[in-house]
Amino acid sequence: MSARRIFARPARFAAIAPYVWMVLFFLVPFAFVLKISLSQTAIAQPPYEPVFDPTAGWDALKAALAALSFDNFRLLASDDIYMFAYLRSLTVAVTATALLLLIGYPIAYGMARLPKRWQAVAMVLVIVPFWTSFLIRIYAWINILQHDGLLNQILLALHLVSQPVVWLSTDSAMYIGIVYSYLPFMILPLYATLAKMEPALEEAAADLGAAPWQVFWLVTFPLSLPGVGAGVLLCFIPIVGEFVIPDLLAGSNSLMIGQTLWLEFFTNKDWPVASAAAIVLLAVLLVPLLLYERLQKRQLEQGR
Amino acid sequence: MRKASRLSRFNIASLALGLAFLYLPILILVIYSFNASRLVTVWGGWSLRWYHEFFNDRAMIEAAWMSLRVAVSSATIATLLGTLAAVALSRGERFRGRTLFSGMLYAPLVMPEVITGLSLLLLFVALNAERGFWTVTIAHTTLTMCFVAVVVQSRLGSLDRSLEEAAMDLGCNPVRAFVAVTLPLIAPAIVAGWMLAFTLSLDDLVIASFTTGPGSATLPIRIYSEVRLGVKPEINAICTLVIALIALVIVIASLASKLSSSQGESAAPL
């Protein structure tokens, strides 16, 4: 009892270094994003007009506050490109997450029903692709989906199509890429809840006369909801801000917000607008982010 | 008998299809990296030609070297900080700002990389830091230490605390009890955390693009700019080498954790 207390004090000191690091490199940078989102675009290096100089004293601060402008946010709200980009990001994320759940659930369910020894093997097999590079996995799909790639060759050989199908630069290619990249993030939390489930519950339902689909809908699925929630958040949040996959696999006529931000930043060199776009993206994701934090905390700290 | 019947034909089919979906694209990429022909359509026999091309490509080699240095340094710093954070969260009962602390640690796990990258770049610009190796290393450390913290924390949570308490009852001070009892027990998770940090850093394109300076591109940045121009067999070869490196790291680390832990329980993947 007392030992636990004593242990707690040095453990608190352990927090200092990572705490300082995260404040400095995670929290403080957001202040800069906010600040620059409120400043004017300039053709300079760096390409924005500084509006705030902490060394200049009180009067300068007041002048700076007066100079803050919401122009960038006004621009975001008035230009259709950005509204479409946010809408498209959300649509893509919802669709892709639904697909991931649909594809990931049967796999996780199959894993949970394997004999214990094989479950560990299956888990490693699902994790390993997650360890291999994200970019490489997308590139692998470009190989397969290109005009004279393997998929078209197979389809032609089987006489399913009479001429090569255009896969690259389409939404289908993008969805394939997203599902492929995020599948482990959906499977693992689902598997974790399904594996913990008592098999006797399903057996009892079956013994009491429930048909297999009833057993699933009335017993298995409701009990797996925590895993569904974790998997959905783990996929949905990063997909909304995804850049690489839509950039390499989808067409360029409708952009997601991650791409718009990238374009504003690297091509148009409009840092203030890019910052404003990042702030809005963060605001859109705030609720799912908070939900995710609560879930993560409960999961990691319930043993306390 | 009952146990065997739990696995339905549907279960087996979805498992097989799922694993095939996960592995076939990578397998195809590896096979085509040995294709002698420039065209992906034509199989021109086995050849190491594209590996040759890669080893003669100075810019690519330099980028690969940069990526390796960043990955090793950032993974090492991240493992140190992440482990400290995990210990503080799972052993340091209550302290001021704890909610903020855990919030800052969990958020980057799902935060879109464009946001993290942009915000760090703006910080570096404001500090007037020269962008290159160190800025990318700091950025990667910030991202990956959160993954390390989660992996180590889940291991700490599953440990039997009476072991630490016993050590202290027997006269160890808390720090000594931690070093002698806790640390060996969480070592596999720390190793796993380092590996995860290493591969995440080696893999990252978005954050590195924002935080690096001119003339110091990482491997993903170079690969990305080549891929945008179309499929090149040389890229297949580079990707195969990266996959081989990561596979090697995984094998070494799983051997190491097998040796150091007698318990069968493994750390959570995430």
Automatic annotation (TrEMBL), chain A:
Domain ABC transmembrane type-1: 86-292
Pfam families the UniProt entry points to: BPD_transp_1
PROSITE patterns assigned to the protein according to its UniProt record, in alphabetical order: ABC_TM1 (PS50928)
Subcellular location: Cell membrane
CC per GO annotation: plasma membrane
Keyword Hydrolase set for record: no
UniProtKB keywords: Cell membrane, Membrane, Transmembrane, Transmembrane helix, Transport
Top-level taxon in the UniProt lineage: Bacteria
Residue spans crossing the bilayer: 12-32, 81-108, 120-142, 173-194, 215-240, 271-292
Gene3D superfamilies hit by this protein: MetI-like
Protein topology in the membrane: Multi-pass membrane protein
Biological processes, Gene Ontology terms: transmembrane transport
SUPFAM superfamilies in UniProt: MetI-like
Family according to the record: Belongs to the binding-protein-dependent transport system permease family. CysTW subfamily.
Alphabetized PANTHER family for the sequence: INNER MEMBRANE ABC TRANSPORTER PERMEASE PROTEIN YDCU-RELATED-RELATED (PTHR42929), PUTRESCINE TRANSPORT SYSTEM PERMEASE PROTEIN POTH (PTHR42929:SF3)
Stated name of the protein: ABC transporter permease
Lineage of source species: Bacteria, Pseudomonadati, Pseudomonadota, Alphaproteobacteria, Hyphomicrobiales
From TrEMBL, chain B:
GO cellular-component term (any): plasma membrane
Keyword Ligase: no
BP-aspect Gene Ontology terms: transmembrane transport
Domain ABC transmembrane type-1 residues, every copy: 64-256
Compartments (UniProt record): Cell membrane
Topological type in the membrane: Multi-pass membrane protein
Transmembrane segments: 12-34, 70-89, 101-127, 133-156, 177-197, 235-256
InterPro entries: Bact_Polyamine_Transport (IPR051789), MetI-like (IPR000515), MetI-like_sf (IPR035906)
Presence of the UniProt keyword Cytoplasm in the record: no
Family of the protein in this entry: Belongs to the binding-protein-dependent transport system permease family. CysTW subfamily.
Protein name: ABC transporter permease subunit
Source species of the chain: Bradyrhizobium frederickii
